Each structure stands twice: as C-alpha cells, then as structure tokens.
Amino acid sequence: MQLAMIGLGRMGGNMVKRLAQHGHELLVYDQSAEARKAAAGKGVTATNHLSEIAGQLAPRRVIWIMLPAGAAVDETIAQLLPKLSRGDIIIDGGNSNYRDSLRRAQTVTAHGVDFIDAGVSGGVWGLDAGYCLMVGGSSTAVQFCEPLFKSLAAPDGYAHVGPAGAGHYVKMVHNGIEYGMLQAYAEGYEILHASQDFKLELGKIAKLWNHGSVVRSWLNELAERALARDGDLAGIRGYVEDSGEGRWTVEEAMRLSVPAPVITMSLLARFRSRQTESFGAKLIAALRREFGGHAVRTS
Fold first, then answer.
1. What residues contact residue 222 under an 8 Å CB cut-off, 6+ apart?
2. Which three-class secondary structure string do you get for 64-78?
3. Could you say which residues of the chain have pLDDT below 50?
4. Cα 160 to Cα 17: distance, rounded to the nearest angstrom
5. d(Cα 146, Cα 138) in Å, to the nearest integer?
6. pLDDT, tens only, 260-272
7. Which terminus, N or C, of the chain has the lesser number of Cβ atoms within 10 Å?
C-alpha cells in the first residue's frame, strides 16, 4: 500500500522502517535533510518539499503525520488540504489533544477528506515488537488503511475504538495510567534503594519480580535492564518531562468529576522533579521553625 509519512523522529522513523519491511511503498518528508537522507532506501523515497507530496501519490492518497502536538500539525494540514482530493485520508499519529483532533476532523471532512487519529504506543521497541494502535475515524477510512495498521501493530495490537477523536482520547487515558504506573515503580524502588537495614541489589530484585510476581510487567522488565546497568542510576538526573497526555487526563477527570488521585499525584511529582529547590518546601521549614522552634538547614 502507498503512504506518505511526514515526520521522521524516533517514532516516525521506526514506523517507516517497519512499514517498508512489510512491503508498503513510502514517500517520506521531514524538515531535516539528514533525516530524509537516512530514511531513504528500499521501498522508501524522500521528498524535499511538503508541497510535492500530494502530486507524488496516487489517489486515494494516505498521508500520515507524526509531528509534535500543536501548531505543527495544524500548519501541516493547512498546507496539505488545498492539494488533496475528495476521499483522500489524513492520519494524525502524534500525541495530539483529542479536542484538537475533533476540531481537525471537522475542518478536514469539510474539504471531503477523511481524518483518522491514531494513538500509537510502543516507543522505540515498536520497530521490532510492533506497536499498539488506538484508532479513531470513520469505518470506511479505517478499513481502507487497515493494511497499514496491521503491519505496524503487534499481534492483537490494533483496534478501531470509535469515531474521529476517540483514538487520541483512548491514548490520552493510556498515558495517564502510564504516569501512575511509573510513579508506583519509582517509589517502590526508591524505598528499596534507601533501606538502612539492607544493601539490596535492585537489578536482581527487578529480575525476580518479573517471574511470577503480581507486579511483573514490561515496564518492570525495562527497570530490570536499567538497574542491571547501574543500580544507583548515578549517571541520570531525576528530571522528568511530561508530554501533555497526563495533564489532559487529569483535566478530563476533573471535568467528569472522576476521582483520579494516583494519576494526579504522579503528574505533580513530575513537576517537583524539575525543581532544583522548592520554595514551598522552604516555606514549610520556615513555618515549622516559627511555630515549633524546629531547626532548619541552611544552604
């Protein structure tokens, strides 16, 4: 099947490789000339200009966008739409806010073009193991693109979850759950690491937990790998970014009046990780000194 892929970062680049391995014909574009050059190869042709994509594809065109959420996606769609024809399909496979996907679907369908939002999970491992694809869009458009989804997906790793917007909605909540799981592992391993009674080999414990334990998981397998290399994680700074989905999940929980304390606190823990010094903690220390005469540590 013929496809254009826009965006050749860690996810987009690996998805191109997996699709080419499954015999699909790809036209690729990225702002980076180096990325375009690296992607070109058997079954993959790079184009130097976004404006050339539509003219190099045969109808019914399928164009997959793998760009950071926000303005870059809107700008790309705005450049593509005038050159597309009725029945063509735009797929947004990035981590877009589902409300943006709902809006974009209205804009795109008003031009007679179909819009699919595909939440993609699997990280850098997806190239070999396959991805998990949460797909939203019309049944006809999704069915047309199904060969692509099945080539990318792990076994049973693809589902049409609803109309446009549903794919990114499901992916948003998926990532919110991920935040909570990561935080639980982080807290547990930190307790083990901080033990004053035992000098524990965290890599050994992680490996143990991956055999028969109720906390075994792929994330814990990755913890096993990381801790086997360095049980103290000495070369890593504890600074944790968030890509948006955790915030959006918390906002949606608040909108729906659904209690989500674990996901909310895991998001706030990421904010704390970025502070070299917490003013709030300083204030608590100062107040304890004021009301109770408790000692404070000075910098």
1. none
2. EECCCCCHHHHHHHH
3. none
4. 23
5. 12
6. 999 999 999 999 9
7. C
